[in-house]
Amino acid sequence: MFDKLKKKFSDIFSGNPHDTTEESNIVKNKSVNEDVKPEKTIKRDELENTIEETLLEADVSFDATEKIIRELKLNLGKLKRKVDYTTVESELKNVIRGIINNNNAGVIDILSVENKPFVILFLGINGTGKTTTIGKLAYYLKNHGKSVVLSASDTFRAGAIDQLAILAGNVGVEIIKHDFRSDPASVAFDAIDHARARKMDYVLIDSAGRMQTNKNLLDEMKKIKRVAKPDLTLLVLDAMIGQDVIDQATTFSSEINYDGVIVTKLDTDAKGGSIISISAGIKKPILFIGIGQDMDDIMPFDVNWYLNKIFSS
Ligand SMILES: Nc1nc2c(ncn2[C@@H]2O[C@H](COP(=O)(O)OP(=O)(O)OP(=O)(O)O)[C@@H](O)[C@H]2O)c(=O)[nH]1
Ligand SMILES: [Mg+2]
């Protein structure tokens, strides 16, 4: 996961790719053997260009890359003294952290919510991982001592109800389902009713994948939201689709208001930049990330975890 970006940053900040003894304003970080190593230096512009290229190659969107470089230059420019690799690396980290935290400030802790049942609606285009994520999240909540009921509100795709029922069985939570092609909003209504009557903690509502062009399905999505009145609406985004993810999220937000996102399939993101692009482009918090196909391959998103994955120090 994110291996390419980590390797590249590691090379850059250890001074590998652009070592030069030319006149410059960045001094290579002096380490343990500073007495024996000649001081290596590098031009600041050159380093900034290398970082810019690296971000673009890691699939960080153009806009996000420009923003990062702009802020990095600004922060480094404020430093009166000569800067070294370690300073540039830590400033870059700060800039990336800032972009991600900007959206994640005030993000709710799903385990300590007050409403009971707490209703979560999952939306997204086809195949992003909604149904799998619901299974994983049910497992996560159950492992934290919570009671969960799933609402099989993807009544559109043949097999979707069975898929969710199998997941419910595997993780050991309840499911409310109606027949194929029945009204998804009425399934959600019944699931919430069921949870209320039994004082259960969470209702997780699955929904059919839909494209922005599919008017009927978009109307159906709005109806589920109107009827279920979810406490939280989450858009499920697939890290594998690269920068199209921003367009998807923007299109969805023009149709329906959602509170945050779940980014799936990060285990397949060798390049590493999707989290940065999503944070910079969508301006919604990332609540959870999917990191594999097993039921325990989900974790609350943590900016420090991400930074540790892409930076070596
Ligand atoms: N590698 C990996 N695969 C995942 C992850 N999350 C989901 N998948 C896979 O993505 C595929 C689609 O997942 P679904 O959960 O069926 O996606 P969906 O959004 O419900 O699809 P529709 O109902 O057709 O819209 C499945 O093969 C999942 O196993 C993840 O975090 N990592
Ligand atoms: Mg599904």
Secondary structure: elements and pairs:
Elements: H1 3-13, E1 26-27, E2 41-42, H2 44-57, H3 62-78, E3 83-84, H4 85-104, E4 118-123, H5 130-143, E5 148-151, H6 160-171, E6 174-176, H7 184-197, E7 202-205, H8 215-228, E8 232-238, H9 244-255, E9 260-264, H10 274-282, E10 286-290, E11 298-300, H11 303-310
Parallel strand pairs: 1-3, 4-7, 4-8, 5-6, 5-7, 8-9, 9-10
Antiparallel strand pairs: 1-2, 10-11
Helix pairs in contact: 1-2, 2-3, 3-4, 4-10, 5-6, 7-8, 9-10
Bound molecules: guanosine-5'-triphosphate (GTP) and magnesium ion.
**Count of discrete structural domains:** 2
Structural class comes to alpha/beta
Q: Indicate the radius of gyration in whole angstroms.
A: 23 Å
Low-confidence stretches: 18-24, 34-39
Total strand segments: 11
Largest sheet, if any? 8 strands, mixed
The assembly state of the depicted protein chains is single chain
In the CATH scheme, what's the topology name of the largest domain? Answer: Rossmann fold
Number of helices: 11
Which strand order do you get reading across the main beta sheet?
6-5-7-4-8-9-10-11
Mean pLDDT: 88
The appropriate CATH architecture of the largest domain is 3-Layer(aba) Sandwich
Shape estimate: elongated
CATH homologous superfamily placement of the largest domain: P-loop containing nucleotide triphosphate hydrolases
CATH class descriptor name of the largest domain: Alpha Beta
Helical residues, percent: 40-55%
Spatial separation of the terminal alpha carbons: 17 Å
